[in-house]
Every structure is written in structure tokens, then in C-alpha cells.
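Study this one:
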Amino acid sequence: MKQGERSMRVLSWVLVILLVTGCVGTVVGTAADLVIETAKVPFKVGKAVVDVASDDDSDDESNDVQGDDSSS
């Protein structure tokens, strides 16, 4: 193998390694974001259930208060 061919081969491998490193970082970052969002889902669902349940109670209370004011 000639010196010029060897230099080109080494340079090619260095470029490939540098480019792949960026891709791996992107894939790992995307996977981490996915795991975090997946972990948040149960809490969002629980909050929605609590909001629905508490909204019904506060609507009933506000109707009772308005009913009391009109009867006075």
C-alpha cells in the first residue's frame, strides 16, 4: 500500500468516526427524551382525572352559593 493511499484511508476513517459520534449522540438524546415523556404520561393522566373530579365538586358548590344568594 502506498503512503498516499494509507493517508486517505486514515483520514476517511477519522471522518467516519466523527460523523457517527454525532449521530449516536442524537439517537441517545432522542431515546432519553422519549423515556422522560413516557414517564410523565401517568402523572398527566392522574392530574386530568383529579381535575375532572375536582371541577365537578367546585361547579356544584358554586351553584349552591348562587342559589343561596337568589333566595335571600
Summary: The mean pLDDT is 81.
